[in-house]
Task: structure prediction
Amino acid sequence: MQRTIIVAILVVFLGALPLSSQTTSTAIVGTVLDPSGAVVTGAKVTVLQVQTGIKRQDVTSGTGDYSFPLLDPGDYAVTVEAAGFKTETTRGIQLQLNLRARIDFHLQVGTEIQTVEVNATGALLSTDQATLGQVVDTRPIEELPMNGRNIASVAVLQPGIQYGGRMGLTNVNGGSGGVPVPGDTITLSANGQRDTDFHATIDGVSATEARVNTLPFTPSPEAIQEFKVLAGSYSAEYGTHSGAQLTIALKSGGNQFHGAAFEFLRNDKLDATDFFQNYFNPVGKAPTPKNQLRQNQYGGVFSGPVIIPKVYNGKDRTFFMFDYEAHKVRQPNQAGTANVPTAAFEQGDLSALLNRRSAAGAALPAVQVIDPITGTPFANNQIPASRISPVAKNLFPFFPAAQVANPDPLSGVNYFGVGSTAIND
Result:
């Protein structure tokens, strides 16, 4: 029984095997040459990911080239070995998301036991692709203040990138209110492209919802390795969308355990009163209380190698990363306005649309309701009760009753009320 439980646990953790699932653009490529500039074929090339100790090996082709696609971002070292030449290693290769880094080698004549080490201290240039974009790595993600902990606040610092309108004004300002999905969402506009052309991937997997391509949640900043917003000249792997392409790489576990816990609190008790809160109040009137706000964002992240004592040691092989974050918002007694369906509209009586008036009493164009089946107008804009969908009838009880009759039923406000906002992400 005990062995069965251990095996079951092992099978679950095997799901944490490091699968390189970013994009085909994240790669290390290069050419191996001898001192005369001729290509070296059949040379053994080893790529080491320093954080995890994972190695990948290949040999150079007939043209002296090598390629390691589908790599995770991180710190790498590349080693080349060939008969008759000194072994050469280049360390300190900081591979960023969507970067196709070119690391060429000019081998020196000697024995394989002789080694030459080079540290790559300069920034790597993307010479093998023309994609426009900028990578944001771990440090600014974790250290820059982000209102609402939404990484879009950092993304819009890049040239040509703006908030998409479907994030909602409250979401842009750090709250919650995405459209059409409520809560913390991300949608970006690049170089004037519509935000409905926005697309996002997390570890290479499409993460946008299917209606208007918003990213319907925001990963914890502590769990993000880095992200990149592509703004133009996309490679073929980014088809179907012409707008901003947001690619997010989550952190992978390594050979050391790392963890963090966090709580971010916003509360009206700790807020200063808005300068204009009571500015226009008459003398002697009681001060208007501040709008109530209770917002908590809390959770934790933990990562490391998969280790089951006396059974399995995942060092250099198998890793895990666990992240949890909750975002709870409570805003009671919030005043609001709306234009809700009138009682006549709910009964199918849209005759008021035939006699629309502006606030000043000027006539407005009439709106004739057309029968979608016959293509002819409904008499006096009256929709028969039998033609009203049962689904629509079941939705009517969720609308409050209109309090006033507007001269133009399609504009203005006919309901004033006080409600509460409660969001649980």
